[in-house]
Amino acid sequence: MTEKILNWGLLSTAKINRALITPLRNSARNKLSAVASRSAASAQAYAREWNIERSFGSYEALLADPDIQVIYNPLPNHLHAEWTIKALMAGKHVLCEKPMGLTPAEVDSMAEAAAKYNRVVAEAFMYRHHPQTLKVKELVENGSIGTLQAVRGAFTFKMSTNTNIRLVPEWGGGSIWDVGCYPISYTRFIIGAEPLEVYGQQVTGSTGIDDSFFGQMKFPGDIYAQFDSGFRTPYRTHMEIIGSEGTITIPSPFKPGLDEKILLAAADVTEAIDVPAQELYIGEVEDMADCILTSKAQRVSLAESRANVAAIVALLESAKTGRPVQL
Predict the structure, then answer these.
(1) Largest distance between two CA atoms of the chain
(2) Coil, helix or strand for 97?
(3) Domain ranges of the chain
(4) What is the assigned CATH class of domain 6-124?
(5) What is the CA angle 203-207-212, rounded to 5?
(6) What pLDDT, in 10s, does the model give residues 302-320?
(7) Sign (positive/negative) of CA torsion 68, 73, 79, 85?
(8) How far apart are alpha carbons 152 and 228 in whole angstroms?
(9) How far apart are CA 169 and CA 207, in angstroms?
(10) What is the tens place of the pLDDT at every residue in 121-179?
């Protein structure tokens, strides 16, 4: 019996779509079938450029197509909840770009719709599916660095323009929502717990969003975390996991390539651990197929997504008030 193939539709012609096109075409269980834009001409041009079978001149028309089973939602942050819920109501499964929502209440509404319509909704944190991330988690859990004490991380890049959706406060702009969500998510995953208290400070840009954000998080068991994110600093990504007996350094934690190494330092010896090669975005595509076709639990649960949003909201509140915020 031939396994069912899931037809995917792209909800807009966003630049990030390009990350999904190749994995979808390389997957035996997933197929890129359609794209929608706010105009028929834009959708048709995009479909021709990327050799996509069908195009739609509105998002609603894509959601109404009975042949599409899965929607990829790469819309601006403030539209994630609205259009994910609309897709669920139309009977579609949804892979939604990070952040899942801008408030815990938005994620709750998405979870309620997913349950009501019996559909899968997952946040597109691609790094969570990569062998490198899973190996780091394994090393921490098997005691390779002793008792976990601290986690440090960063994700910054220098934005070359002052006209970008990431700079619009009303659209969920700001560095913590865009790139800071990664070290926060990574930290929570590695520790396996939620922060008890957070403290944040930010450098506010001309539009009112955080151009740079600096955060601290206190976790159960006297584990502490620090991170920074930003739009005005040269490109930097790293994570460092610190234990009582050693450290793990991950030079490219969020966008690992095909030839990555983890640095494990313990007992005065530093070991470079090879990571199995895997295309970065294929994991989230195959995870959706697993969840939909085999009822396997999704790797990034909606509860995890909600907790990440809650941590970000608390950090922003702390930066606004100048005081620590308890969760």
Answers:
(1) 62
(2) coil
(3) 6-124, 127-280
(4) alpha beta
(5) 25
(6) 999 999 999 999 999 999 9
(7) positive
(8) 9
(9) 7
(10) 999 999 999 999 999 999 999 999 999 999 999 999 999 888 889 999 999 999 999 99
